[in-house]
Amino acid sequence: MLWTIFVIFLILWLLGFSLHIAGGLIHLLLVVALVILVFNLITGRRS
Fold this sequence. Notes:
With about 45 residues, the chain is mostly helical. The chain has one domain. The chain is built from two helices and no strands. The longest helix is centred in the last third of the chain and has 21 residues, at about 25-45. The two termini are about 15 Å apart.
C-alpha cells in the first residue's frame, strides 16, 4: 500500500515538472510521502 502511494506521488511529481500543474502541491505531497516512507523503513513492520 505504501509503495503504491509512493509511486503515484512520484508520477504526479514528474508530471508536475513536465506540465507545471500544481507544482507546489505535488512537491509538498512528495515530501510527505518521503517522510512516511523513511519513517516506515526505520521503524520496520511490527506484528
